[in-house]
Amino acid sequence: MGTENRITINRDGTLSVPDTPQIPFIEGDGIGPEIWRATRQVIDAAVQKAYDGRKKISWLEILAGEKAFEKTGNWLPDETLADIEKHAVAIKGPMTTPVGKGIRSLNVSIRQKLDLYACVRPVKYIQSVPSPVKDPQSVNMVIFRENTEDLYAGIEYQAGSPDGDKVRRFLNEQMGTALPADAGIGIKPISATNTKRLVTRAIAYALEHGFTSVTLMHKGNIMKFTEGAFAQWGYDVAAEKFKDQTITEKELWDDYQGEQPEKKLVIKDRIADMLFQQVLLRPREFGVIATPNLNGDYLSDALAAQVGGLGMAPGANIGDRCAVFEATHGTAPKYAGLDKVNPSSLILSGAMMLDHMGWRGASRLIRDALQDTIKSKTVTYDLARQINDAKQLKCSEFGQAIVEHMG
Ligand code: NAD
User: Fold this and answer.
1) At CA 370, angle to CA 369 and CA 376, rounded to 5?
2) pTM for the whole thing?
3) Does the Cβ of 309 fall within 6 Å of ligand 1?
4) I want to staple 325 with a disulfide (CB 3.0 to 4.6 A). Which of 152, 282, 349, 358 is the partner?
């Protein structure tokens, strides 16, 4: 297939999408193949229906994880990374983390090697999904979690190791600290460059999707030069790049008496621990949330619990060169091959991918049909056990039911 069927990224970051784009997929390990089959069927049906056959995705299988290891001896072949980059957009199922094979995690490797610096997790309630909170309808947030630095950069020294001792001695002798000899040490880098590119993406997304605020989540009261700096750099980049479209929360009160002017996005910040409370108690006050890596990891799963858990939560890892859409849960090995689990996380990630491509007619069909399927109480086991009188469907039947609801 020639380059004319590839999605390309324009200089301004927008995508050029042909009518029959080739899109690579990694089906993943464990339950990956079955949730991918259901997802592919749903995406293809939605695209066919939304565009009367004028648009169609041509799927290209690429290898990673156990399947790649069996076929090539390599868990993450270079060709796979090159294919993702060449096609600008890809979708993947969950992958097993090889234990003791010298690879920390294939997902982390993909993010690092392709510089997918923004982990994007929309958290929106779908009607009829069982929820542990009173007012899940108010939850509509999108988390932009920085993916490349913070304590997740992997700079760690084991207590008592030669490197650990070297770092500890340097800090104690040269920098005036008093670290105990049996301390492990982790380094937490947070840079202006990486913060600003993440917050830029979060603000651009909020403006494009009609959100009213971007909240900078941080723990700057304790970690001033990392988390505190994250918030300050966030405000700085809003002023540098989006001066006419944004106001700070302080300006909202000082200059506008708390009345948000139309078409102005409010930039605010919240201390991480307090934000955990507020997203539960006052979810309507939050739209897009930009956060460093570790906070974002915790917040994403906590918020997902409000709207049905990880089985229902979509996600994407996005950089300037490409974007990878993925299920947010793992490979659930004990269910592998049983045709039983809920494919919604990957299906909704597929809908996000269609949004990213500008194919919103198709993504809307998917979300509406998924909601109608759940409303009619025909669901997979995980939801069936929480809904009275539900009819339990297999994974493949649930995919089929979504397609039928599109009609
Ligand atoms: P997991 O998410 O695979 O499963 C935990 C439990 O959650 C399952 O036993 C099941 O009860 C439930 N569950 C998960 N997905 C579900 C679905 N679609 N429908 C219904 N129920 C679902 O987490 P784990 O057991 O900690 O990890 C298993 C493997 O997955 C490990 O190798 C881990 O490294 C890997 N993993 C991969 C990713 C990824 O690829 N993005 C993410 C997390 C874990």
Assistant:
1) 85
2) 0.93
3) no
4) 349
